[in-house]
Specification:
Length: 420
């Protein structure tokens, strides 16, 4: 029997634990992460896993290629909530010679591993995070990848709501836009409650996201798409495309996607998260020749280039501010934050130029100071570039707790003939 006072959580693609930090801030007694998996392919040093394992030694923490986790693990464990920030890849599928569902191409594996985990464990809820361009991929068949995902969830008996959230628009310190995907089983009380409202009402006020991330009460003009999804995932892969927007819902094979406007909250500024200068090590200050390199990279430029096939073209970039504005939230942090490039945060304090410290990068994502201490600086920046803003997850956690209060969390496995 499930404990009505808590949710058993499985964290996949766990990184350094952003989902867990956020959920435990919402309620560490309610969200009980019992299992986690983090594996960085091609790396001998598994720094992210080591960090996760050191902070959370009480859970079953796995450092495995997800495809090697046996079916029995998902079948035997009582998983109420599955969370993960998975890579944006090629989700296309094709029929195998036997007529079943096969994976087309080596890159499309990881999402299908999540689907395998869901099919075998049937959690009450699923919470996933990805880059917002997922809604527009691939370029030659816009929206196809996300529609494939919706079809897969529909086939498993789940409804899905999604929202692209810019953390800074809801009072946090980083202008980081990510899509959050919340799926819930169609035999949950929450599903029955949601069925009392039409799709538009849910997206604007009564749905999963609108309760904690409020939006204006009108849809952006002409930004609306609705449709029906085939249960034949291969057909979706071959033939489907759609203009998808920052908010949407899919129930029983039909979907609505609209563009909503967030009701902005005052954000935390970059200046507010900086360490006192007396705490900043000299190695984070930028020498004069590198200052000029940063200024060049952030300035406007037109460069003549030649493509691989011999075609000549002009590469152009507009200018950005010489240094990052300390009165605004930080820009989106990338995994390349440790290098000298255009996307790296570059600041001027007390008439001296420097980059952000690893602690300041942790603060941009809402982690405790020195969360990634113990690994090389380069990896600390990399892990924070991969991480999510924990404050967003905290707020989502409060919402999950609200909707779970009416549920019977008995997760005896339900017999199903699903074939994914």
């Amino acid at each position: 029997m499930g404990n009505k006072n808590s949710l058993n959580v499985l964290e996949l693609f766990a990184g350094v634990g952003g989902f867990r930090v956020g959920l435990e801030r919402a309620d560490s007694d309610f969200f009980v992460t019992k299992w986690a998996n983090q594996w960085e392919p091609g790396r001998k040093a598994q720094d992210a896993f080591a960090s996760y394992d050191s902070h959370f030694p009480t859970s079953q923490n796995m450092n495995d290629d997800i495809s090697t986790i046996p079916d029995e693990f998902f079948e035997k464990n009582n998983i109420n909530l599955l969370v993960g920030g998975f890579p944006c890849q090629d989700y296309s599928v094709a029929r195998s010679l036997s007529g079943g569902l096969g994976i087309a191409g080596k890159k499309g594996v990881l999402f299908w591993e999540i689907i395998r985990a869901i099919r075998l464990s049937l959690p009450n809820y699923v919470l996933l995070e990805n880059v917002d361009r997922l809604l527009k991929s691939p370029v030659k068949q816009r929206g196809r990848d996300f529609l494939i995902m919706l079809s897969a969830f529909n086939k498993l008996g789940y409804s899905v709501e999604w929202r692209v959230i810019n953390a800074a628009e809801y009072g946090l310190a980083q202008r980081r836009r990510r899509i959050f995907i919340f799926a819930y089983r169609n035999d949950e009380n929450f599903y029955k409650t949601q069925m009392k409202f039409d799709d538009t009402k849910l997206l604007l006020s009564k749905g999963f996201f609108a309760e904690k991330f409020p939006v204006e009460k009108e849809i952006v003009k002409n930004r609306i798409t609705e449709g029906t999804i085939s249960n034949d995932i291969v057909k979706v892969s071959d033939d489907y495309s759609a203009a998808l927007y920052n908010s949407g819902i899919m129930r029983n094979g039909t979907y609505l996607s609209v563009e909503t406007k967030p009701i902005h909250e005052k954000p935390i500024t970059l200046g507010e998260i900086l360490q006192p200068e007396e705490e900043v090590d000299e190695r984070y200050y930028v020498k004069e020749e590198k200052v000029e390199k940063f200024k060049y990279l952030r300035g406007p430029k037109k460069i003549e280039r030649t493509s691989k096939d011999g075609h000549s073209y002009t590469f152009s970039e507009g200018s950005m501010s010489e240094t990052d504005d300390l009165t605004k939230p930080g820009r989106t942090m990338l995994t390349s934050e440790s290098s000298i490039n255009r996307s790296t945060h570059f600041i001027k304090v007390n008439n001296r130029y420097r980059v952000l410290t690893p602690i300041e990068c942790e603060r941009l994502n809402g982690f405790p100071d020195n969360w990634t201490d113990g690994m090389p600086d380069r990896m600390r920046y990399f892990c924070m570039g991969n991480a999510l803003v924990t404050g967003v997850i905290e707020r989502i956690g409060f919402r999950i707790k609200e909707i779970s209060s009416q549920e019977d969390l008995n997760r005896e496995h339900i017999q199903t003939e699903l074939n994914l």
